[in-house]
């Protein structure tokens, strides 16, 4: 479907303009994160020399939330440093969303491409996913328009299948991204099955391919002990939608469950009303029938605009929490417990509809009116999250690991290691004020026994999600080295100057001389011989 460009130029130039806008906005948000070192911010952590240890491969019985991402990072690290991989992912998680929308709308004009890219990138949704430390999840969201474009590609089935595979691989780095990619491909293929040259075998091939890229985390989940989630996960990770203000926040792509990831601007009327205005205008564009797309496309856009927020709000209500909590016991459902992630589809649908609306306005009233509407929409997007760039700047800054890190990792070797204090997040002066998930398991060749229980502030209290086995921790606390060995522990590493209590090492634990934030004790049974030979 070719459309007259708002400003003269080919579809290729329109897509290029949208991509440039997307990349510039992404860099405006993330430039302080670019530099030498690793990024250590909440869930987004990496080490200088990642290894293919049990924790990385998802073979230690914990939920495979970073499978196969951590393994891919470790495999690429000898060629592309882990810190560079992080920085590329951070920028790409924003830029690829806008570029994908520009490619989708390239035949509707330059203004449509630029508007769609800007609204998607500069959104409360994108900001809050970054502020909760989940660029990998955001990368899966960014690949949605690319997957739609790949399924609708002209040419042979082989060409489409290859394009889908290329677009899906970045999304499939995480379980949620893989599921999202599978759903998008299947739904898009179903809506295009009546086009010339499309056959049922192609649809089946795409569905099978989607199942294949989900296999890494499925296999890891089946091998582990955490195939089913917990009831508390539904409440902990439900969107925050208190009162009218909270509902407006969710409708605009906000309402994330983590207070530390919330934008201060979203507590005030200007930002909420600006985001609401974008959604209302998008709905009006769809309702008045000025969008020149097929009936199936209009239904898909309507569903993406309305259903994600409706589902998230319903599952955050009293009855919804009860039902969703019970559903967490079904293996695999826990992947979907963070319902805020669903709102990314609303953001994309809003961006597409606003772009199409500007294109329709240009056809009726001319490029001057379209330019004015485009400027207004961009202004509303910025007002909806004016503090987003500053917050992201403060969160993501590269840092070098201190002296003694490699020394401590080498001293541990491939031993099974207990990591203390017993909590998942650390704070260190050399990183900054922000907490970060303990990265030590990514560096160890052996099994790391570390806490993964999460405590999420909700309704004046805290909801704890997780069921850590504390047998080894209790044995260390009471100084029972024999019980510690029976639990399979051969070494204990403690972080200095971080929140949490670490009991004094019991007699018999042998301290290894290391510098830096990590303290290493060996608890191997001396009668079995010098286990340090494995270091």
Task: Describe the secondary-structure layout.
Layout lengths: L10 H20 L38 H8 L5 H23 L5 H12 L2 H8 L3 H8 L1 H8 L5 H15 L3 H17 L8 H14 L1 H9 L8 H5 L6 H9 L17 H19 L7 H21 L2 H10 L15 H23 L1 H18 L3 H8 L9 H8 L4 E4 L4 E2 L9 E2 L2 H4 L4 E2 L4 E5 L2 E5 L5 H7 L3 H6 L4 E5 L14 E3 L5 E5 L13
Helix pairs in contact: 1-3, 1-4, 3-4, 3-6, 3-7, 4-17, 4-18, 5-19, 6-9, 7-8, 7-9, 8-9, 8-10, 9-10, 13-14, 14-15, 14-17, 14-18, 15-17, 17-18
3D architecture notes:
- The N terminus and C terminus are likely disordered.
- The strands form three sheets. Strands 4-1-7-9-8 form a five-stranded mixed β-sheet, covered by helices on one side. A two-stranded antiparallel sheet has the order 2-3. A two-stranded antiparallel ribbon has the order 5-6.
- The protein is an alpha/beta fold and 535 residues long.
- β8 and β9 form a beta hairpin.
- It starts with 10 loop residues before the first helix and ends in a 13-residue tail after the last strand.
- It is built from 23 helices and nine strands.
């Amino acid at each position: 479907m070719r459309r007259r460009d708002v400003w003269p130029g080919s579809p290729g130039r329109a897509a290029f303009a949208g991509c440039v806008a997307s990349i510039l906005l992404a860099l405006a948000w993330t430039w302080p994160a670019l530099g030498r070192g690793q990024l250590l911010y909440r869930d987004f952590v990496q080490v200088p020399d990642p290894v293919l240890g049990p924790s990385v491969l998802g073979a230690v019985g914990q939920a495979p939330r970073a499978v196969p991402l951590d393994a891919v990072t470790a495999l690429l690290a000898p060629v592309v440093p882990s810190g560079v991989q992080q920085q590329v992912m951070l920028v790409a998680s924003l830029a690829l969303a806008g570029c994908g929308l520009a490619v989708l709308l390239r035949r509707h004009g330059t203004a449509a491409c630029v508007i769609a890219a800007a609204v998607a990138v500069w959104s409360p949704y994108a900001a809050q996913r970054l502020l909760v430390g989940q660029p990998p999840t955001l990368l899966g969201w960014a690949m949605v328009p690319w997957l739609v474009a790949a399924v609708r590609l002209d040419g042979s089935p082989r060409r489409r299948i290859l394009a889908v595979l290329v677009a899906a691989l970045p999304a499939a780095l995480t379980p949620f991204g893989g599921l999202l990619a599978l759903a998008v491909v299947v739904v898009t293929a179903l809506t295009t099955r009546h086009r010339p040259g499309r056959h049922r075998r192609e649809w089946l091939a795409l569905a099978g391919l989607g199942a294949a890229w989900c296999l890494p985390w499925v296999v890891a989940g089946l091998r582990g002990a955490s195939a089913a989630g917990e009831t508390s996960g539904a409440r902990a990770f439900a969107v925050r939608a208190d009162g009218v203000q909270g509902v407006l926040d969710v409708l605009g792509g906000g309402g994330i469950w983590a207070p530390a990831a919330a934008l201060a601007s979203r507590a005030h009327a200007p930002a909420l009303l600006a985001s609401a205005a974008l959604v209302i205008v998008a709905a009006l564009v769809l309702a008045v029938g000025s969008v020149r797309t097929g009936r199936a496309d209009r239904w898909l856009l309507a569903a993406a605009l309305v259903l994600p927020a409706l589902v998230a709000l319903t599952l955050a209500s009293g009855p919804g929490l009860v039902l969703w909590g019970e559903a967490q016991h079904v293996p695999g459902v826990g992947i979907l417990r963070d319902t805020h992630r669903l709102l990314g589809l609303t953001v994309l649908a809003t961006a597409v509809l606003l772009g199409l609306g500007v294109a329709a306005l240009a056809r009726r009233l001319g490029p001057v009116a379209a330019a004015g509407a485009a400027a207004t929409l961009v202004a509303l997007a910025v007002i909806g999250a004016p503090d987003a760039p500053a917050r992201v700047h403060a969160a993501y800054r590269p840092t070098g690991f201190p002296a003694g890190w490699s020394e401590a990792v080498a001293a541990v070797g491939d031993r099974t290691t207990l990591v203390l204090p017993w909590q998942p997040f650390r704070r260190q002066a050399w990183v900054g004020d922000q907490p970060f998930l303990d990265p030590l398991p990514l560096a160890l060749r052996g099994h790391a026994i570390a806490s993964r229980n999460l405590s999420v502030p909700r309704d004046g209290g805290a909801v704890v999600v997780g069921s850590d086995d504390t047998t080894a921790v209790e044995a260390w606390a009471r100084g029972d080295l024999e019980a510690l060995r029976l639990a399979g522990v051969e070494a204990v590493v403690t972080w200095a100057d971080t929140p949490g209590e670490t009991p004094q090492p019991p007699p018999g634990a042998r301290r290894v001389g290391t510098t830096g934030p990590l303290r290493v004790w060996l608890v191997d049974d001396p009668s079995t011989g010098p286990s340090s030979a494995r270091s």
